[in-house]
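User: Sequence in, structure out. Go.
Assistant: Echoing your sequence, followed by the structure tokens.
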Amino acid sequence: MYYAKKYGVKIRIIHSHNSDTVPGLKGIVKYRLARLAPMVANNYFACGKTAGKYLYGDNRKFTILNNGIDLQKFKYNSQIRHEYRDNLGLNGKYVIGHIGRFNIQKNHKFLIKVFYDFQKEVPNSVLLLIGDGELKMEIQKEVQDLGL
């Protein structure tokens, strides 16, 4: 971003996805570098109000770009629902799903802890975790250790 400004790139965009810092040294470095970027950008975007205020503060204007999803593709269809449940062996089950990257921001550990307690109350419940990421193996082990 610094070099883009230095060499006259007219449009320099920064986008904020998060509203918190990843713990540890990596998080501190990323946060400090991210705080410098608004000084050389000239277009500011965020995926939500909290994410924008986190990176840009209260005094800088930014545009919120909502994640674009074609809702018609996901419109309820009882036949498709039955086929998927049948293929996954989920008929008659209470299904809770989570789709997202396996990283610290998604807080899978808390989700699994809550589901562990929930399953005691609703024994026929199933938690589907769908995604990929650096914590996938760690989360998989935790699920197995809890017997879920």
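User: And one key feature?
Assistant: The mean pLDDT is 89.
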